[in-house]
Amino acid sequence: MWRPSGDITLDAPERTRDAPGRMLVLYGRLLGPLLVGYLLFDQAFAYIHLPGTPLYVGEIVLFVGSLGVLAATGYLRVVIRDEPILTLLGAFFTWGFIQFLPGLRIFGISAVRDFALVYYCLFAFFTVALLARSPDRLERWVRSFSRLAPWLLLWLPMGTGLEAALAVHAPRVPFTAVSILGHKPGNVAIAAMIILGSLWLFPGRRSMRSRAAWSILALLILALAGCQNRGGLLGATAGAAVGLVFMRDRLRLFAQAVAVMAAGLVIAAQFSLSVPASVSGGQSRGFSASQLLVNVMSIAGVKTSGNQAGTVEGRDVLWSRVHHKQVTDRLVVRGEGFGPNLAAAVGVKDDATKTDALRSPHNSHFDILARMGLVGLGLWIALWLAFYWRMAVGCLRLARRGLYIRHQVAVLCLMVTTAILVSSFFDPQLEGAQVAAVMWTAFGVGVAVTSFRKWFEADRTSTSVRNGLADPFRP
Length: 475
What we know:
The chain has 18 helices and four strands. By secondary structure, it is an all-alpha fold. The strands form two sheets. A two-stranded antiparallel ribbon has the order 1-2. Strands 3-4 form a two-stranded antiparallel sheet. Helix 4 (about 85-105) runs antiparallel to helix 15 and helix 8 (about 185-200) runs antiparallel to helix 16. The protein is globular and about 60 Å long. The protein starts with about 20 loop residues before the first helix and ends in an 8-residue tail after the last helix.
């Protein structure tokens, strides 16, 4: 019987109220609403802004998590000892922290702001520690999100459409210029993909007809987001493709999805359905079948004119200038560190405001290379290679052992991380908690469900009949 600290027993059916780690339990209770808030309201939910004092919600939850692991260090210490991938993640964080300290002295809060690219990985550590303390929390998350998925699907197109229709007249978060309805299209695409995956991985008591209807709405949201953001569309497609690999009827589901999308495009084109929308820089990119086709063709490498071409050229210029400066400064191996405004340093301003609001190369992976050098990028690549190897092997082992619910959770974690990693090539998504918290939580959950160590013995979540969760993998 394994005990991480004191008299705690992880293989007990339930946790006692007086067991250490109650702050970790509080972290788990806050984490679910935090992620749902990000999916629902995106940047508007990111912070509570009092006059002159922005309070970032994600950082508040991270603070609770840090108190939790400090109060019961055994839960985190043992999982890091047992899971080498967490040691690798710790090495990535440590190198980033080393690069952060000099910038903190020089740039102050700007360095902290840039270091968010690294410190959001604490969500992964704290989530793994939480599941070591309370493995039953995973089942609660699955069931809660399954109930919330339809409401998310109803809100996302409404919020996106209202923001486009109201434009500058949309209501704002108090004391800020942030729209309450504002959703970044790339983030909307990721959210729709997550919901689509959950519908088929955790169908619950929904009939096939019900799931098909909700899936059509999810595909519609993906199309709407794809009209505005190619990176999000490509990321969501990549994530869905990973999920299909593990589905039993993958070919049929793929054919049905393609048929629905094709029929929707034909209908939209036939009736010339189009909704105007404004994007940054005063450019116009409406919601229409033609706009979606142009974006898809540009992803495929077909040269286009207008906004798409300008965006691609702008990113190429920014990336090449940042890299050239890094080579000139002889910081390719070590990196620029955290604090310097990389975009402003090479003469690139934010398209919308013409200010230095844009601080990164508009690519999270390139940002890691620029700020942490080849050392950081090497750790980053090694981390994700190790993660995908672990998840692939773990999924096979879970299926062989009949742990189907854990298997489904692992597949969804793969879908989420894949979608965000791909989308982050085109947007600095990992620098904001709205997406980073989702990805790193998925990372932590994925490590937990694919672990066969004693610290995670949540096999009771594999009982499909008791949970009412039908299994699409089981023959």
